Amino acid sequence: METNVIYCGDCLIKLKEIPDESIDLIYIDPPFSSNRNYVAFWQEQEKRRFEDRFENVPVYLDYMRPRVKELYRVLKPTGSFYYHCDWHASHYIKVMLDRDDLFGYGNFRNEIIWQRTSAGKPIYRNLPQNTDSILWYTKSNNYCFQPVLQPLSEQDIATFNLDDSDGRGKYNTQPIINPAYRPHLRYVYKDLRGKEWQPPKNGWRFNENRMRELEKDNRLHFTKRTIREKYYLSERLAKGKQVSNIWIDIPIVAKQEFLGYPTQKPIALLDRIVKASSNEGDIVLDAFCGCGTTLVVAQRLKRKWIGIDISPTACRVVAKRLQDSCGIKEGVDFWIRDLPKTVEELRAYPAFEFQNWAVNALGGVPNKIKVRDKGIDGKLYPIEDIKKEKKEGLDLFGDIDRYIPIQVKGTDQVGRPAIENFEVAMKRDKREKGIFIGFDFSRDALQEIRRAEREEGLLIEPKTVSQIVEDQLDKSLL
């Protein structure tokens, strides 16, 4: 099985290429959205509204159920599955995952509550909704897990206020009560002094032999009514305390980490999940990888990984992020598979998604501003300028600014008015050469291109989508 690969397409289709029980850890953060509305290109200056909704919860569940079934199939018996969601559908998602033909109620491990933000200043007619839920399931009781530990706070240390002067210092206690009903652990414990202790309702947490060992090691604390277990401050300071299922110590994405993706998750969040439920060399899968946080974390932690996303632009952004953040190279250390290759596929793209594909396909840099972009959708830089180091206060690639403007239209046929508008933009930016991309060009549009070259010295190269697709195919065959 190929790893360190990004698949472009619907995960329902792409998951079928992955063998049964081959993945160690799966994390997904699917949009509460249909692919019809989901436009997955983002930049920090982009002002478009992010559409993220289905018609209703049943439609969303109908969309997710077959995909979760495929995820269950590819997960190893020792693997873990994390489903990131929020209040919109978390309860319905859990009911779906509890089904016997999916993970099942018995394989539910925990619900992690992640506090994304603080409550904030405004006063609402409701409690602020500032948490996400991450539903954790496994495929069996034999699963990989490393406890997540963190240092004790001053408040934690203050709870160690008991000392029996045996040389181990201060300690605190905790109940020895089984969280579930265990009849075989409901025994009467007779301590070393001969006193008998009645069991709690669910039974003791330890068997009788283990209880005896703890008592001999002076690790049992006897109250008037029951027995509690001692744990010492010195030991906890060395080991730290285990993180619970309430995560309030991971803030939202830091400014320097933020890519502009509306539902981007912080590196620290995925770092905790990957460390807890996988080992070095394991395979991590994110079937809705978005801007690639899971893949970046997996790469840094020496895991193998597979990412899937339906957006070609997202796949390109992830590739750049992996190269910039992890120092790995596309085509050498990782690969992108199944980017669209037909004109028919590209016709179905949302307008901004198509625009970004076209500029990237030429090797250009898409314009960050998508609304009121002043007639320029992207810029193509000469390769010698790209290699220059960016300098403070200068343009993108140093002091020489020789970019070629790119304009993109997703209409069936580019007309003369669109060409004339592009000429205005070129003159404004003092450009003598430009590229216009469209599915086709009208006769009037081509006549205007020839006129502009003859009379005004403006060189506009009309480039059709089919030409770009053919060029990409030729390069792939080299």
Q: What does this protein look like?
A:
The chain is an alpha/beta fold. It has three domains: 5-145 and 246-339, Vaccinia Virus protein VP39 (Rossmann fold); 150-242, no CATH class; 346-476, Trna Endonuclease, Chain: A, domain 1 (3-Layer(aba) Sandwich). Helix content is 30%, strand content 20%. It has helices at 11-14, 57-74, 90-97, 154-158, 208-216, 233-239, 267-277, 293-300, 312-326, 343-347, 351-361, 383-386, 416-428, 443-456, 465-476, and strands spanning 5-8, 23-28, 75-85, 108-115, 131-138, 149-150, 171-175, 189-190, 196-197, 220-222, 227-232, 241-242, 246-247, 283-286, 304-309, 335-337, 365-366, 378-380, 404-408, 433-438, 459-464. The strands form five sheets. The chain has a nine-stranded mixed β-sheet with strand order 13-4-5-3-2-14-15-1-16, with helices on both faces. It has a five-stranded mixed β-sheet with strand order 17-18-19-20-21, sandwiched between helices. It has a three-stranded antiparallel β-sheet with strand order 7-11-10. The chain is elongated, with a radius of gyration of 29 Å. The protein starts with a strand and ends with a helix.
How is the topology of this model organized?
Layout: E1 5-8, H1 11-14, E2 23-28, H2 57-74, E3 75-85, H3 90-97, E4 108-115, E5 131-138, E6 149-150, H4 154-158, E7 171-175, E8 189-190, E9 196-197, H5 208-216, E10 220-222, E11 227-232, H6 233-239, E12 241-242, E13 246-247, H7 267-277, E14 283-286, H8 293-300, E15 304-309, H9 312-326, E16 335-337, H10 343-347, H11 351-361, E17 365-366, E18 378-380, H12 383-386, E19 404-408, H13 416-428, E20 433-438, H14 443-456, E21 459-464, H15 465-476
Parallel strand pairs: 1-15, 1-16, 2-3, 2-14, 4-13, 14-15, 19-20, 20-21
Antiparallel strand pairs: 3-5, 4-5, 6-12, 7-11, 8-9, 10-11, 17-18, 18-19
